[in-house]
Write a structure and sequence with these properties.
Number of strands: 5
Shape: globular
Distance between the termini: 14 Å
Largest sheet: 5 strands, parallel
Number of helices: 6
Strand order of the largest sheet: 2-1-3-4-5
Low-confidence stretches: 1-7
Radius of gyration: 14 Å
Structural class: alpha/beta
Order of helices and strands: HEHEHEHEHEH
Mean pLDDT: 89
Length: 141
């Protein structure tokens, strides 16, 4: 299974996960390790934005509900950048189940949304779809 996903995503895939809960970061990191991807974790939106400034990522996984700056504000700041990083693919990962949440996230600039608890196949599918869309090849994985 891991070879399939690495081939679909290309190598290397470096992902930033902005999530305040250390257990959620650990679980997603373990899943991404299976696929051969690397993940950097940020425990707050503020730290995540600093990491985006200093590093190159293929995509961002972003929790919505965090102390301090929430994911919506972080997403607005990412999309408000004036450099190429404004177009980084962002997948929202949330436990929030508000009826209009998917539409709001997409309207604010998210590429996709996953609901917690995240299953490995759902995570891999969302990453594959999002990377294919952002690469412009139109492939749906």
């Amino acid at each position: 299974m891991d070879r399939l996903y690495v081939q679909c995503w290309g190598e290397p895939v470096n992902i930033l996960f902005i999530e305040d809960d250390p257990m959620n970061r650990r679980v997603v990191k373990d899943m991404l390790d299976v696929a051969g991807a690397t993940m950097t974790g940020a425990e707050s939106a503020e730290i995540g934005l600093e990491l985006i400034d200093a590093n190159d990522y293929a995509m961002i996984l972003l929790d919505l509900r965090m102390p301090g700056m929430d994911g919506f504000e972080a997403l607005r700041r990412i999309r408000g950048r004036t450099d190429a990083k404004a177009k980084l693919p962002v997948i929202v990962v949330t436990a929030d189940t508000a009826v209009d949440l998917r539409e709001r996230c997409i309207a604010d600039g998210a590429d996709d949304i996953l609901f917690k608890p995240v299953a490995m196949d759902s995570l891999f599918d969302a990453i594959g779809r999002t990377l294919a869309k952002s690469s412009g090849d139109g492939m749906i994985l």
